[in-house]
Amino acid sequence: MNHKTVQGQYRHLSPTERLALVLESLGRKDDGELGALIRSCPVHEYRLQDQDFWDLHNKSRMIAHLFAVDWFRIRQEVETARLAQSAFYLVGSKFEQGFGLALEAQGAVPPSTHQVWQQYENILQPYDERIENAKEAERLWSSRLKGLHAGLLRFCQRAQLEPHQLLAWTPPLQDEVKEFIEGLAPDIEADEEMSKTIFESFLLAWPRLRDRSH
Where are the domains of the chain? Predict the structure, then answer.
């Protein structure tokens, strides 16, 4: 079989067969055969829906799901801190009640200098400290949650979308996000670093905006 006949068979190669021969040509540095293999590759015409739309469609779903992951993670931290406050308060309160009942049963209140009061304070103090630590943790995570939400709002404004439209990909969050944010203490400010990070990461993922993000 002469060289022209061999090249004539190139158009009948499967994609896998063509790739194998292309790689062989590259290995041999055979530019002539490589060129023939590339030129003989079949040309097809395709009809596609607007790829700009589908790019935005798919990226909107990705961004909504990324937001949901962060939202549920940080909200869980807020809920955990709240639970810790309630648990430590309840345990401390029960101890106080029990101590009071013990004094009633005894029928006398020890003087303020009695060592029992020092023991009483030593037992209660760790609970008070844990409650305060849990309160600080709640404020910290609430600030980050507000920062996450603020970053989403900034992105939606740039992308010309409403937050509830983007969150249509994650139906449980459509109402929950607004209600939960409104229920946080109003004196807690949004974490600016979190807001900036979320905004910029979403911006870079958005096809129409990433090239204008700088």
Answer: 3-39, 51-210
